[in-house]
Amino acid sequence: MSKYNNIKTFDELIDLEHGKIGTETRNKYEENSQLFIISEMLKEARKEANLTQEQLAEKAGTKKSYISKIENAKGNIQLSTLIRIFEIGLNRRIGLTFL
To answer: Which residues form the HTH cro/C1-type domain (predicted)?
Structure first.
């Protein structure tokens, strides 16, 4: 019998695969998920603006390697720099929601 037989919701699957909310493994999963979402949003916005990573970095006052790092969901992202990239580099507003 598969460990997935009694799974009926996506939340149950995430709990099974990554642990309950508040556990170290689940926190790491959630952090990586958020980094992935941000990376995809940045890539899409940059491509819609027809900018290379280098061009975006120059407009936002950062380095191409930093843009690449964000787009590949690697390392830590400084919030002030992320806001600058979106608002100055891409002329987009950024909003945060805390749940």
So the answer is: 42-85
pTM: 0.82
SS3 category, 38: helix
* Domains with residue ranges and CATH for the chain: 10-89 (1.10.260.40)
At residue 84, what are phi and psi to the nearest 5 degrees? -60, -40
Sequence-distant (≥ 6) Cβ neighbours of residue 26 within 8 angstroms:
14, 15, 18, 19, 20
DSSP 46: H
Map residue 94 onto helix, strand or coil.
coil
97: tokens are 């929601």
Rounded Cα distance between 26 and 17, Å, is: 9
Per-residue pLDDT reduced to its tens digit, 5-19? 899 999 999 999 999
Which one-letter DSSP state was computed for residue 20?
S
Cβ 35 vs Cβ 77: under 8 Å: yes
